[in-house]
Write a structure and sequence with these properties.
The protein is mainly α and 298 residues long. It is 77% helix and 2% strand. It is built from twelve helices and two strands. The protein has a two-stranded antiparallel ribbon with strand order 1-2. Helix 6 runs antiparallel to helix 11. It is globular. It starts with a helix and ends with a helix.
Length: 298
């Protein structure tokens, strides 16, 4: 039971990262490799702040703003420097690695005996792993509500229009470059926030903890879409978080089958590949079914 509650709690926290990735991957419709640098950057800022006695809530908020900085850098390289978005993200990710080493002072820093957002006095009274679920659920709800409200505003609609059809958005007077920068900042802000939360949950920050995070986020998005199908935009945000929880439960099942934790990255890639191919299989199945009905008709 404790393993299940642990997976649910981690799924909620990873869901914050998936929500951030959803803004660029699905709404703006481009891949952002900054993710794998932003995640450990948010963790490094948060852990460093906690080690120096900063309030856990303030340290967590700092991780969000740290992520926004990396998003801003990528956005400026992409829109003003005219560097392809994939390469712009890789450049930022590479540079942030050295910044993380500067912040932490070494490759790995722990949070032993430090106050965090997950070990407050009230939360300590809850059963094991439930503090993570409570904090994760509260933050996930806040993020989803704020994103839903933002996307329903004129600015949010301009943001969506930029991803749907950039040329049409420009013809309507929308500054698409600014929308892209805004999207990258919001996206990476949430990813940095996830890094800060998961570093508190794990009890450490590591400069290499961002490896594979993009695959994890994409898996949550794809699983949520495959399981729930066509939904409203707000419902899709909820589905992304649920997809993250399902993904963690799948990993737990794999672990229970006897696989090593060393295989998680490979398993994550396989799960993502399968989920991305499911719509194709479904389409082929429907086509065959329709053809079969056509043949059977007298």
């Amino acid at each position: 039971m404790s393993l299940i509650t642990s997976s649910i709690g981690q799924g909620l926290l990873w869901g914050i990262l998936a929500l951030g990735l959803y803004l660029t991957f699905r709404i703006l419709n481009f891949p952002d490799m900054t993710v794998e640098g932003t995640f450990p950057f948010g963790a490094a800022i948060c852990v460093s702040a906690l080690v120096h006695g900063v309030n856990p809530l303030a340290a967590t908020i700092l991780s969000f703003f740290a992520g926004m900085v990396t998003g801003l850098v990528t956005g400026l390289l992409y829109t003003k420097g005219k560097i392809p978005v994939l390469l712009a993200g890789i450049l930022t990710m590479t540079g942030v690695y050295s910044v993380n080493l500067r912040i932490l002072g070494k490759a790995n820093v722990g949070l032993l005996n430090k106050n965090t957002l997950l070990n407050g006095q009230l939360l300590q009274k809850l059963p094991i792993n439930f503090p993570t679920i409570v904090v994760g659920l509260i933050i996930a709800i806040i993020v989803i509500v704020l994103l839903a409200v933002f996307l329903d505003t004129d600015l949010g609609q301009a943001f969506i229009a930029t991803g749907d059809n950039e040329k049409m958005a420009q013809s309507l007077g929308i500054n698409t470059d600014n929308m892209k920068i805004l999207g990258l900042m919001l996206s990476n802000g949430l990813i940095g926030l996830a890094g800060g939360l998961l570093s508190q949950n794990g009890g450490y920050a590591d400069v290499n903890m961002g490896i594979g995070t993009m695959v994890i986020g994409l898996a949550a998005i794809i699983i949520g879409e495959v399981v729930y199908g066509n939904l409203s935009l707000t419902a899709r945000l909820v589905a992304v978080v649920i997809g993250s929880i399902i993904y963690r439960l799948i990993l737990l099942l794999v672990l229970q089958l006897g696989f090593s934790t060393n295989d998680f990255k490979l398993i994550s890639a396989i799960i993502l590949a399968i989920c991305m191919m499911l719509p194709l299989f479904e389409q082929k199945f429907r086509t065959r079914k329709l053809l079969k009905k056509g043949v059977e008709k007298p």
